[in-house]
Amino acid sequence: MSEHERSSGTGRLLTAVAWLVLLFGLWLWGRDVTDVRQGLTTPTTGDIAAVGRPDVPLPPALEPLGNARPQRLDIPSMGVQAPVVARGLDRQGAIEPPPFEQPGVVGWYAAGVRPGAAGAALFVGHVDTDTKPAVFYKLSAVRPGATVRVVRDDGKVAEFTVDEVQVIPRDHFDAQQAYGAHEPGRAELRLVTCGGTFDRASRTYTANVVVSAYLTGSG
Fold first, then answer.
1. Per the UniProt record, which residue ranges are transmembrane (predicted)?
2. Which domain holds residue 135?
3. pLDDT tens digit string along 81-98?
């Protein structure tokens, strides 16, 4: 085997290992992000009505845009206009959500895909705080066909269309299912928060809400 072949093989192995480590961290995050303090004790708004994939026609996908960092996330159907902050992984390899002291802020996994580029960009937000709803309180009520806009630091606004809404129990959380791209080469988003009901004994929510969207416009 040549030196070039050995180097290529090593590179592919390291990429695969890094992807597996990330997926494990995302799996941990999907289970652990639902750990809140007191929180509101009612079911997350709209969980029962989460509808999965649509039966209505959706617009065609737009070709991916160039790389740019997100600055703001807008979801008109929820009345959300939220600043975006970059987040990394904690010591356990799980994504750090935004601080509880910033309930109106959305976190973006900065080591992953940038919104508008090919792949699935990950956004996370709290469902509530000790005393009131937070930025993604109504996330599970979003329907396929809804619009999500990301204002980027290159001056462009990437417009995404929701194509799937899932409420995934914590005990059956699958990081690949939740975060993997639905179609290779397509620019996609994942919006994730707590869902299900609040368990007083464990002080956690019982599920995660995962909203999937794909790039359909740019302005």
1. 12-30
2. 3-218
3. 999 999 998 776 667 888
